[in-house]
Design goal:
The chain is mainly alpha-helical. The protein has 5 helices and no strands. Helix 1 runs antiparallel to helix 3.
Length: 173
Amino acid sequence: MPGLPIKPAVLTEIQRQLNHEWSAAHAYTALAVWCTERNLKGFAQFFYKQSGEEREHAQKFMDHLLDRGATPELSAIPAPRTKFKSVLEVAQYAREMEQANTAGIHQAYEAALANKDYPAQVALQWFISEQVEEEAWADELVGRVEAANCAGGMSSLDRHLEKVLSAKAHGGE
């Protein structure tokens, strides 16, 4: 059995969060499809990119478990929400998903702390930092959509969304 054994409470939380990441990837794909259907290709591209990031996050959790001799358990992923009234509602939903993801990561970290699981604490610290960025872009997305209320504003935002938010997420402006 490789690595340091993982305590059951921590294993349960990391398994839960791993599956939450897969579910978030699925949900972001659904948001991208919704945007594509409305010819909002910049939004769609951005949400497809987010879906990929969530899959990468799930892989990090799987790697952590495997490195510690635990087998990742993939659960059924519920169908994502697909009906929205507006781009603003989509943006608000994305923000709610990131907030829920942050809460889940904090819950896993609390289990790692309580069980003195130092390797899990270190792994989860990366996710905690990542969620600060994720919530920041989600807040910015909602704000930009709310501000795009003049004629052509949403089209302009759609054209520039991926460039602006991607650059900011990666340290540029």
